[in-house]
Amino acid sequence: MSKNLSRMDFIRHRRGEKIEPQDELDRKALEGLRYLNERESITDVLARLDRRVVQVLDTNQSKRGFVRLLMSKRVVRAVAVILVLVAAVFLLTRSDSSDRLYNQYFTLAPNPYYQITRSAVPPDEDEFKKAFLAYELGQFDRAEDLLGQLIVAHPEKEDLPFYLAVVHMANDKFDQAIPLLELSTSTTYRDVNDQALWYLALANLKSGDRDQTMGLLQSIIDQELPKRSDAEELLKALR
Fold first, then answer.
1. What is the pLDDT of residue 154?
2. Closest Cα partner for 142 from 122, 127, 154, 162?
């Protein structure tokens, strides 16, 4: 490993400065920082890694001299680099699993406004039917525009933000979907709150917040909501 890769290099790299790695291990270590929790500062990350090193080394009480040797700053930095790499691999694997589970469970929510059937009347000038025809056909960009207009024109239809959130999820816009879903969990109009809780769990799963996802799934189970069976399966897969 390069002698020049230090804690300050990690911090500077995390802050956006360009750091030129000297070898393959250094390069992978720097790349691994991308997969750490972005809400946690790099100094907190490195401090946490140090604590883990100390805990691991202190478990072997019979090798105090060896522990003191390993606790030199240089070796601790080296172990921290290795832990960053391990964390990166773990989070990448976990991300793949989250994506797979999300794709397995995400489907469009049934809507009460327009269903495509053989006997369905073409939407023509009906604004609700036009919006939900696009929704059902998977024309999500168009559905976003039309649902946005409906929300402004019909604030009394308190379930519309929920369907817009589902469309955002289909368009991989989870940062826009989650606030709408959180709002919808407190809206009893057409029982949309029960549906919103399930989709909020899925949106958090896709966004990488597994703890929040598991808490929401447990809430669905505890309340015996319609998605209880799916929630139990998904929660089991996440544990």
1. 96
2. 127
